[in-house]
Amino acid sequence: MGNALIRFAGVGKTFNSSERIVCAVENVDLDIARGELITIVGPSGCGKSTLLNMAAGLFQPSAGAVFYDGAEVTAYNLKTGYITQNDHLLPWRDVAGNIAVPMEIQSRSRPDIRSRLEELVGLVGLNGFERSYPSQLSGGMRKRTALARLLAYDPETLLMDEPFAALDAQLRLNMQIELLKISRRLNKTIIFVTHDLDEAVALGDRCVVFSPRPGTIRQIIKSPLPRDRDLLQLRHDPSYIALTADLWDIITPTLAQTRGEAN
Amino acid sequence: MKGAPSTFRINALRLALLAVILIAWQLASGTLVPIFFISEPTAIAAQLYIWIADGSLFFHTLITATEAFAGFFLGGALGICTGVLLGRVKLLADLLDPFIMAFYSLPKIALAPLFILWIGIGMDMKIALTAVIVFFLVFLNTYTGVRNVSRELIAILSLMGANERHVLTKVVIPSAITWVFAGLRISVPYALIGAIVGELIASNRGLGYLLTSSAGQFDTSGVFAALIAIMILAFILNTFVKLVEKKAMPWKSFEATRDVTI
What structural domains does chain A harbor? Predict the structure, then answer.
């Protein structure tokens, strides 16, 4: 990957809390090309979210540097849109109001916002809930609202931290198809963190496997699947099945390790 | 909700309780306790009727209400602005903290003589006194609210390219507004304290004056009638704040009425 859009160069991050120093990630070297969809899998607590936070510029790495489009990320990276594990919706705004926030910040015209809003609400299947407040929604619906809000401001790069974890299987497949479509059509660069190995294989152009804490890259697997894959037919694709099995084999020893750590 | 009494029933019970209290009062005065000390409900009602009929109750209530409302709005508005400003500008807050706390611990009523020296014994003095009392309560609440705004929400909006104005209007103020209203609600009785005590100290108008002049004439019925008028005024102010609160925070009423899930 010659011209990486996002480059993690020897990135490490330690957090100092009062009781102890936690090393979240270590020695991460990763180049992500423009338009690439990278999935990151690994046990919980292995610093996957930390990586996204640094790409978004929420904090700096303690070692190494993160580069975006050639420049070091030192402040909030406005080229990225971030969908976090917690949906972080504004509780005082209803669904429509939440989705409209980024568009209001971009000072788009009212009719423009309204038409885009309708589109997005339909896309994430929240028709009829436009006037509901987050406290009235289920976890999955809140996630979908957050996703619609992310798509509303159309950032160049999407940082997604387990965005579909709370969704049921059908809806999740729909959202995956939609995400893939968006990434291909608009050539979005996406870093997608997930626990779900199937999802990681189904979506990723490359799949990055992390080791348990301190998180380091264990392996990067390039997907043999075509870029315009058909997620509905994937279940029958032998290379998909083989890759998922491979991933399980890579992850399993670390599972034992995390279990051992817990004992 | 099943099992909870209907609004009608609870209101009926409240009226019944009030009636019992009034009857007991009426029976007790002149028998258990001398009328001089606790007057009697009929005499108080008669006194209230006289004051209503000659317009003096309305006149004095209007004076006190104006002072309380004006002081409440002035102090509240200043408190909110200062609270938001100091909440957002950490340096300023750190700088001013000891001064603010020093002023806060001062009993505000003790400022009354100073205000009389500065602006005389007119309504301005009561408004100033009320405003100072309300200011601190609203300011401290607003400040705490602004400091407690979720930093994650601010970060999320900053990533969307939000500037300080966006962060203020879309996150900070809506988030702090719960605290602001908590401050405003506890300020209501204090606003009345400011106005009434101001009138007690120096005045020839207002409910506080009505109170002292009745007491000066050993007119217990008048004292109680004035107290009732003050209570009614407090009730109106309270209701007003609650109404505005409901209008300003529509998402809250949903949170209050939805079924609890965990």
Answer: 1-79+157-234 (3.40.50.300), 86-154 (no CATH)
